Amino acid sequence: MKKTIGIILALLFAGLLTLIIGSPIKNDMEAKKVANAIKECALPERTELIDTVSAAGKLVGNGNGMQYFGAILIKSELSLEELKEYYGKLASDEFQNIVEKQETGTIDFIEHEDLSFDADCDYENTYIVYSWGDYSGLASEFDLRGH
Question: How far apart are CA 52 and CA 33, in angstroms?
Fold first, then answer.
């Protein structure tokens, strides 16, 4: 009887440990999917891809909950308005393919994490195209970064 209880407790502990370790990995993969969805869009003319970044966790705002962020850094001869129009047509909702001017490597609106592009460029005519993703699986509940 004691052996059975020991085995059950060991299995419960192993399961909980798997959730705690596996959840951040799963959530990082979900965030990477958000970035890859943008990256897979055909670039507009006279535009080049510079870098890609993604993050999962409580990134902006208050309260608990996982957020999934993906972005690309592009250099373009097109104007901000032209890029917004181009990427806006490819978005399925207001949280996808948002375009803004990017003047440094740091993504300033991400409040709770230091997130930046690794690209070494002059940031002239550079823009960030970013999306917020959604995932409501078990991993989103057990990742401590969301709390």
Answer: 11
